[in-house]
Amino acid sequence: MARPRFMPDNFTLCLIAAMATASLLPVQGEVAVVFGWVTNLAIALLFFMHGAKLSRDAIWAGATHWRLHLVVFGCTFLLFPLLGLALKPILAPLMGHELYLGMLFLCALPATVQSAIAFTSLARGNVAAAVCSAATSSLLGIFLTPLLVMLLMGAEGGSGDTLDAVWQITLQLLLPFVAGQFARRWIGHWVGRNKLWLKNVDQGSILLVVYGAFSAAVVEGLWQSTPLLQLGGLVLACCILLALVLVLVEQLSRRLGFNVEDRITILFAGSKKSLATGVPMAQVLFAGASMGAMILPLMIFHQIQLMVCAVLAERYARRPEVADPLAESA
Fold first, then answer.
1. What is the C-alpha radius of gyration for the chain, rounded to an integer number of angstroms?
2. Residue 326 CB coordination number (10 Å)
3. First to last CA, the chain
4. Which pTM was predicted?
5. Sign of dihedral through CA atoms 289, 222, 160, 72?
6. Minimal CA–CA distance to 104: which of 72, 89, 71, 82?
7. Where exactly are the transmembrane stretches of this chain (predicted)?
8. Which of 40, 19, 71 lies closest to 264, judged by CA?
9. How is 192-253 classified by DSSP, letter by letter?
10. CA nearest to 73, candidates 169, 137, 1
11. Whole-number Å distance between alpha carbons of 235 and 307
12. Mind listing the pLDDT tens digit of every residue in the chain (330 residues)?
């Protein structure tokens, strides 16, 4: 029996199921701590496998792709804040002043790391460049986000423990990637022959992140703390912001002459905001009850961006495959 055209792909259905399960059976307490460790291990495995898959030539090409990195950083730390300010006449009435401040906080955050790279991999984009851009964006955000918050809304607060944040990024992402590079001589060919297994690791890590993030939102009272009308306005505002960013990023990368693999990387690395970075930063920058209003827009935007990017990644993945000599070289 043929699959109906209107039916979403299996991965999108899994994302919907993860969100629904988290709404009904959110992971919490000690179980949430264990689940967090499992998610971190899955992400570390993802980076290890990408380290084993990519050749040194591919990594060097990605790291030195400065035009792509400048566009990603510009979209993350300039385009988002400017759109947040420009859209105030539309966004503020939809959600109220406090949640609008949360949207400005969202706009000041760095890009995601694991999901941006996973979606780039699923869509067969420039994974090496995505690794470099996303990781660097997360590091830059440690310094730039508090400054942008003060510029956008006058909030005061420290930047937190910078050395600890750098260490966490290094431990969870960069060390597994380097270990994968070291192990490439032994398992590189196996990884190249088992691309479906790597795809399952990509998708599995995203599903774990979605379930964990949405569980945390539900436990914090996502469905009780905000009036339904205001919540609907927030969802609409997040959709408007994401749609504008996706269109502008795609058009900008196309006009600058990037190839399709680089455009995919720019799209997924330059249009996403990090929940994992945003929540700890909110705990430092904001105090008391205001923190809930600061992170609720990020929680909603995070779920929407994952759903939309999953669909986009699957559409890009269906294009004809072309061999990449850099990825295959030793």
1. 19
2. 16
3. 43
4. 0.70
5. negative
6. 82
7. 34-54, 66-87, 99-120, 127-153, 165-183, 204-223, 229-249, 281-301
8. 71
9. HH-HHHHHHHHHHHHHHHHHHHHHHHHHTTTTTSS-HHHHHHHHHHHHHHHHHHHHHHHHHH
10. 137
11. 13
12. 555 555 666 777 887 888 889 888 999 888 988 998 888 888 788 778 877 876 776 666 666 778 888 999 999 999 999 999 999 998 888 888 888 988 999 999 988 877 888 899 888 888 888 888 877 787 677 778 888 888 887 644 444 444 554 566 567 767 887 898 889 888 888 877 877 777 777 778 778 877 887 787 788 776 676 778 888 899 999 999 999 999 999 999 999 999 999 999 999 999 989 876 777 677 667 654 456 677 788 888 988 998 898 889 988 988 877 655 444 444
Burial 134-162 (b: 16+ CB within 10 A, else e): bbbbbbebbebbbebbeebbebeeebbee
C-alpha 221 chain-centroid distance: 23
Contacts of residue 174, Cβ cutoff 8 Å, sequence gap at least 6: 47, 135
Residue 8 falls in which region: left (phi positive, over 0), alpha (psi -120 to 50) or beta: beta
What domains are defined for the chain? 27-318 (1.20.1530.20)
Give the torsion sign (CA, 307, 86, 94, 286): positive
What's the token pair of residue 176?
A: 């597994």
Tokens of residue 179, six digits: 């270990």
CA pseudo-torsion sign 232, 18, 223, 83: negative
